[in-house]
Design brief:
two-stranded antiparallel sheet, membrane, 69% helix, golgi apparatus, COG3_N, protein transport, transport
């Protein structure tokens, strides 16, 4: 019952208001009466009463249940009607909302279209505004033509070039020209570009005219004052320089307007120059001409005074020193003044070269007529040391703010070097190549007593040197420092007229070394190398010719030693001059051409093109011939030859008694084969040392030559001993090749070599020691020590 009551309560809670509430109240009342009827169950005493009670209860319950269902049905009907009204309201609301949504969509579409229309209008407005601004901006480059034309073509336009408005107008013209250059697709761009160029040319021409006119006014004023009266140096300097400095900054500034526009294009065609470079060149030319009218006459006058002065009238070097110093001072003043008139140095050095022309007019004839090599060398030294930069040192780039005077004086140096080379070649031809020796020049060995000849500072190793190559390849002596002697002392040392000259040397050698020492480092290295090779070659030839004459006059030994000693001196001296390898001399041999044409003429086909083409590779073209002149190689070869000739000559003389054939009749038991040879060797060794002492003063060189002669003698004896042993073996006689052997037989090679060491004594005789020719005891001791057969 409680559950049913709870269900009723829950249904009542969900029942709608109004009639449903009344049903709930009634049901609650009926339920409250049910417990009262239940309490009467205790009054039931029989089945009838129970059935009656049950029936009443069932009816009351059925009636109560019916009311509840009826109330629920009514409630549902009410809810349905309520929901139907809600659904109807909702549908109407949805319809209204759909209608509003459609309206909003239409409004949104209209708004979007309106926005797009507004944006299009704004974009068109902006485009029109930009177009108008661009048109206005572009038109300003076209509109400037008329006012600029009126201003530049107005009377008195040249008087406005110094104003700021004129500079602004030039800048504006540059902008207009740049615009026309960058917009060639515009219709009138080409026409306006040409007109603006004409206006720019007109404006710059006005600047040029004003610049030249102002320069002319300054020149007229200065020249008038100079011509009116005599002026001292201070007044002259004021007129020539101070007056030109007054208006220079302002004129320099307007001249800069031309220079800024006289720039070459980025990719100029070959042979073209900057557009307005000619106007700038006119400024430079007019300035140089105006200054030249004032300066050059004064320079000529001062150079004439220098040339007529007693100290420099006869001396080339003194005149060059004074005149070049004066010209350098003038060039420095003009260099500074140029910097006050112009930016940069374009045209400056052409102007300075014009100022230097009077110097060359005076100096060049003196150089051409100067015959003394000493004076030419002194002038070269003066120019190279005082006015030119040292080529051997690494020099930084020349400062553009300083005068490059070496470039101005370089032509003078080239003139001196050309004259020096010409005189050196003439000296080589007359004094060396064509030199005819006098009798006293060939008075050897008597001339050796006048002065000692030292030929080398080399050091020999060991007791002997067997080949002439070791004598040719001498160690190079160290160069003397330039600080050792003054230039005056060096001049007297190498002066051919000086009494201190090396009279012991052959004249051509002395002159060759003197000439090399003079021109060294004064001419171009390539020219010096070529000339030095010619000098060495001709000196070599002259010495060889003198040795030939000496052979006829004296002995071959004197001639060989004369040539050897002088060649050694020449080789030692030329080391200090760094003579490089000379390029080959290329000539053409036309002998084949002559014979070929003669052959074609004989055949009758001289003018046949086919024959000419066929014979191109068969002698028709001249043949290229390369003449390689390397004087040092020639010198070494000739020195090697004369040393070998001397060694072989003395060795052959010592071993001349050795027989070439062996005769049975000869008494071999008495040592007749080698005894004369031993005596001859003992006799000739002192003569060898004596003759070497007459020509050579260096003890080590003498000992080297003595050792070489000893080696050659032993080699000749070895050849003789081989022939002797072969002959004896063919006869059936045994010969011992080792050991000393008996004194009455032929010595073996080792025994003879040991005996020769005792006789030649290479390396044991100090410098200045001589062998006594009449010391028979020494000779006999040497023979007995070596096993001589004649004791």
């Amino acid at each position: 019952m409680r559950q049913k009551a709870a269900g009723q309560r829950s249904r009542r809670q969900t029942a709608p208001s109004g009639r449903a509430l009344e049903l709930k109240v009634r049901e609650a009342t009926e339920l409250e009466t049910i417990p009262d009827s239940l309490d009467s169950i205790t009054d039931i005493h029989n089945e009838l009463e129970f059935a009656q009670w049950y029936s009443e209860v069932e009816e009351s319950l059925l009636e109560a249940s019916y009311d509840e269902y009826q109330a629920c049905l009514q409630e549902l009907q009410m809810s349905k009607s309520h929901l139907d009204s809600l659904l109807s309201d909702t549908s109407s609301t949805l319809n209204l909302l759909t209608s509003l949504s459609n309206d909003f969509r239409v409004v949104e579409l209209q708004t979007s279209n309106f926005q797009k229309q507004c944006e299009g209008l704004l974009s068109a407005q902006k485009h029109d505004s930009d177009l108008a601004a661009d048109i206005q901006e572009n038109l300003q480059y076209y509109d400037f033509l008329d006012p600029a034309s009126r201003k530049l073509n107005a009377p008195g336009a040249g008087n406005t070039v110094r104003g700021k408005d004129f500079s602004d107008m030039l800048r504006r013209l540059d902008e207009c020209l740049d615009y026309m250059e960058t917009h060639p697709d515009q219709k009138e761009a080409g026409v306006y570009r040409s007109r603006y160029r004409l206006l720019m040319t007109r404006a710059l021409t006005l600047i040029r005219t004003h610049f030249v006119s102002s320069l002319r006014d300054v020149y007229t004023d200065a020249s008038k004052k100079i011509a009116d009266k005599q002026l001292n140096d201070t007044t002259m300097s004021t007129l020539l320089y101070a007056k030109f400095r007054v208006g220079a900054p302002e004129l320099k500034q307007i001249g800069l307007e031309i220079q800024k526009r006289a720039v070459p294009p980025l990719e100029p065609d070959q042979g073209t120059e900057a557009e307005y470079q000619s106007l700038l060149n006119e400024l430079h030319v007019n300035y140089a001409a105006t200054r030249g009218k004032l300066i050059i006459p004064l320079v000529r006058k001062n150079l004439y005074d220098i040339a007529q002065s007693p100290t420099s009238s006869q001396d080339l070097v003194s005149f060059a020193r004074a005149s070049i110093s004066y010209i350098r001072g003038v060039c420095l003043d003009e260099f500074e003044l140029w910097g006050e008139w112009f930016h940069g140095q374009g045209g400056l050095y052409d102007f300075l070269e014009t100022i230097c022309e009077p110097l060359y007019d005076y100096l060049r004839p003196r150089i051409i007529h100067e015959d003394k090599i000493v004076k030419l060398c002194q002038l070269c030294t003066l120019l190279q040391t005082r006015y030119l930069l040292d080529q051997d040192e690494e020099i930084e780039q020349i400062d553009a703010n300083q005068l490059d005077f070496p470039a101005l004086i370089q032509p003078a140096l080239e003139d001196v070097q050309t004259r020096l080379v010409f005189r050196a070649q003439a000296f080589l031809r007359d004094e060396i190549e064509r030199y005819k020796p006098r009798p006293e020049d060939l008075d050897y060995p008597a001339r050796n007593k006048q002065i000692s000849i030292s030929v080398t500072e080399g050091q020999i190793s060991g007791r002997k040197v067997a080949s002439a190559d070791a004598l040719v390849n001498l160690p190079k002596p160290t160069k003397q420092t330039e600080d050792g002697d003054t230039s005056l002392e060096q001049d007297s040392k190498w002066d051919l007229e000086s009494p201190n000259a090396l009279s012991g040397w052959y004249p051509t050698l002395r002159k060759a070394i003197w000439l090399l020492s003079r021109i060294y480092r004064l001419v171009n290295s390539t020219v010096f190398d070529d000339l030095a090779h010619q000098i060495v070659h001709q000196t070599n030839t002259s010495l060889h010719y003198a040795s030939t004459l000496l052979t006829n006059k004296s002995t071959s030994t004197d001639a060989q030693l004369f040539l050897m000693s002088h060649l050694l001196i020449l080789k030692q001296q030329i080391v200090a001059f760094d003579i490089e390898y000379v390029a080959p001399e290329v000539t053409f041999d036309f002998s084949g051409v002559t014979s070929t044409f003669w052959e074609l003429r004989e055949r009758g086909g001289l003018f046949n093109p086919r024959n000419l083409m066929r014979l191109v590779g068969h002698g028709l073209l001249p043949r290229v011939v390369e003449n390689m002149l390397d004087a040092k190689v020639e010198l070494d070869g000739r020195l090697r030859t004369v040393i070998n000739d001397f060694i072989n000559g003395f060795a052959s003389k010592m071993t001349a008694s050795l027989p070439a054939k062996f005769v049975d009749a000869r008494n071999l038991q008495r040592g007749e084969l080698i005894y004369p040879t031993c005596q001859n060797i003992e006799k000739e060794v002192p003569n060898l040392r004596k003759v070497l002492s007459e020509y050579l003063d260096d003890g080590r060189m003498k000992e080297t030559l003595v050792g070489a002669v000893q080696d050659r003698v032993i080699q000749i004896y070895e050849d003789f001993f081989e022939k002797y042993t072969s002959s004896e073996r063919r006869k059936g006689n045994p010969v011992s090749t080792k050991g000393k052997g008996r004194e009455d037989t032929v010595w073996d090679v080792d025994t003879f070599a040991e005996w020769c060491e005792g006789i030649f004594r290479v390396g044991f005789l100090g410098p200045g020691q001589e062998v006594d020719d009449g010391d028979e005891d020494t000779t006999s001791r040497s023979l007995s020590r070596g096993g001589s057969p004649g004791s």
